[in-house]
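Reopening this one. Same input as before:
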Amino acid sequence: MLTRLDAHAVYDRLPDEIFEFKLDWDPTLIFFVVILILYTRSLKLFKRQPVETWQKVCFYSGVALLILALLPPIDPLSDQLFWVHMVQHLMITHVGMPLMLFGIPFFVIIRGMPSWFRKRVYVPILKSNVLGFIDKTIGRPLPALIFFEVNYWFWHVPRFYNLALMNDVFHLVEHALFAISSMLLWRNIIDPHPMKAPLPLPARILMLGFIMAVNIILSAILTFADEVLYAYQGIPMPSWFAHWGHLQDQRLGGLIMWVPGGLINLIAMTCVFFVWAKRSGAADLNLDDDSFQKRATSS
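Same output, byte for byte:
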């Protein structure tokens, strides 16, 4: 169970200097902007488009949501309102990232890179021992799922949530880990051509169901808590929401995680199920055709 940790409890345990450290830029935001620029540049260089129109729409929609989640007004409001912070998390982990991956960005952007950068930087990074280790460990389906959930719960433990709330370094690390963990998770669930996820489709449905069930537990804790768990008490609320109070703010955040978050997972499960049914039907049809041809040949 999450335990309450108010602002004073956090302040007393940290040196004063930690609150004076501020950053006006977000590396995760810069990363998404760079991906957007390279992707757009790369598409212009292909004689034959490597992605379908729907994939382009998904990519640009996803990157737009990821960038908007890290810009005003959402990012500043997330420091004042818990429910806005939950909207930001969902935009990054449940909507923006999977939509972006449908556009197979890391396959497309190779074409748009300067040749010297591709040969001396990008390819060596792809072949590095670090990425190889990640791919063989937390890049696998089960470790990716565990990493995603542990990271999600970690940043909702009051002690660590409050650190991210009050210090920019922790806040930016939180953004980066949400982006990385969701990227590793969704690459095992969606696999638009020419990418191929190793996980069987039925297992992907189970993975999404597990995510939804575990997140419901966290959502319920936040929704039904009878006290404010996070250190928002000392932070002024926007005037248009102040009459609701911090407890209702927290409960609204829990409901946003519960209902829209669960609905997104349910939609994803439904999509995977229909893809599974379509592929199974196509496989059965091919099997029937092969059997018919063999009988025709033998006769």
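So the earlier flakiness isn't reproducible anymore. For the record, The longest helix spans residues 245-298.
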